[in-house]
Inverse folding.
């Protein structure tokens, strides 16, 4: 079966929500079992006492990326049909910086906070509640942000195109950098005083 | 399952966790042609709630109206079902490893009240930022990296770079 299955019409659209639920269960389980329901474990990456976020995040990105490359190469999936988020340069960077600020204060990101809610973390419930307020504020003030939000659109740009590299070369470098960071993380963890949480 | 794995302190190996998460993400792309997400479900819920309470206002607002269509309710969004799954999956893992408990997790240097205020503020900022970036750590950064999108990798660097700087400013909240 050549993927992506739903856009190719292999699986009927009516199964969409059931599939969403099942994939969500896998997503939530992997996050919680890795420790992402704990804000203090997540924040360890920034202070150097626990690099779980770095390890899980980059391993996941590389695993999925490699799978997509492989399936595309074998002709089992048409990777050109995959959705690519459009790159609005300024809006992406400013949004990322605001999210980083929120990350440092709240200790979660949206997905991880939902797993915190699932196991009864009251701080995660406050964070999740904040998300709704934040989206509401953005939407109500949208006329103010509209210019910035829609400026510098590069469409579904790929990073290797912007860097003038071949996709496989970039992917290989990304894996090398990630493995380097994994070794670096293990080195830093040994030096940093343990934090009890 | 060994007994010591159920006292709430056991976590799976992070590289195993990463491979599991990566396979789920790969499966999501293979089946649906799109990545995972989280903040999108919040957006759908907010759009839906505002549209129910104040339909004229929602239709007149240029942001809400982007996500309102005549044939489908914004709540019937793919991501809403996915996030319900995330909560179920988190609950299953929390049950398996003995972590179900109502607590406010915070550093001993701050009170639970301070933690809750900071968590709420962090959530609000994350909500605003995720709209600017058209996705959060899941939808923009992680899913974007898997397909090597420029927006994904730039957003990822902006999130982690700024989180690193700000976390040292707010160090007292954590360690």
């Amino acid at each position: 079966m050549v993927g992506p299955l739903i856009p190719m019409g292999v699986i009927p659209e009516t199964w969409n929500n059931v599939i969403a639920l099942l994939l969500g269960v896998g997503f939530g389980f992997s996050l919680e079992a890795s420790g992402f329901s704990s804000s203090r474990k997540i924040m360890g990456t920034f202070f150097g006492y626990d690099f779980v976020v770095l390890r899980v995040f980059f391993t996941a990105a590389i695993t999925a990326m490699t799978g997509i490359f492989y399936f595309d190469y074998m002709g089992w999936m048409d990777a050109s049909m995959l959705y690519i988020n459009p790159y609005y340069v300024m809006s992406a960077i400013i949004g990322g910086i605001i999210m980083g600020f929120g990350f440092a204060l709240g200790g979660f990101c949206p997905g991880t906070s939902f797993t915190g809610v699932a196991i009864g973390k009251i701080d995660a419930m406050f964070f999740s509640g904040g998300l709704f307020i934040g989206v509401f504020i953005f939407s109500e003030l949208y006329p103010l942000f509209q210019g910035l939000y829609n400026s510098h659109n590069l469409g579904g740009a790929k990073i290797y195109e912007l860097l003038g590299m071949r996709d496989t070369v970039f992917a290989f470098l990304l894996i090398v950098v990630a493995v380097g960071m994994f070794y670096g993380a293990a080195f830093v963890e040994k030096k940093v005083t343990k934090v009890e949480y | 399952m060994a007994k010591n794995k159920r006292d709430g302190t056991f976590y799976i190996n992070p590289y195993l966790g990463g491979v599991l998460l990566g396979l789920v993400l790969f499966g999501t792309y293979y089946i649906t042609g799109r990545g995972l997400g989280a903040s999108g479900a919040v957006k759908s819920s907010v759009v839906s709630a505002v549209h129910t309470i104040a339909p004229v206002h929602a239709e007149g607002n240029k942001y809400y109206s982007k996500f309102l269509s005549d044939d489908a309710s914004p709540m019937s969004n793919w991501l809403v079902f996915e996030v319900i799954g995330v909560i179920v999956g988190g609950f299953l893992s929390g049950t398996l490893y003995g972590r179900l408990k109502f607590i406010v997790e915070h550093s001993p240097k701050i009170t639970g009240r301070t933690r809750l205020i900071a968590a709420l503020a962090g959530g609000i900022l994350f909500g605003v930022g995720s709209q600017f970036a058209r996705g959060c750590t899941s939808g923009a950064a992680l899913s974007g990296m898997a397909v090597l999108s420029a927006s994904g990798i730039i957003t990822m660097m902006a999130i982690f770079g700024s989180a690193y700087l700000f976390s040292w400013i707010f160090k007292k909240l954590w360690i």
Remarks:
- Residues 11 and 17 of chain B are 9 Å apart (CA to CA).
- The mean pLDDT of chain B is 91.
- DSSP finds seven helices and no strands in chain B.
- Chain B has two domains: 1-101, 107-175.
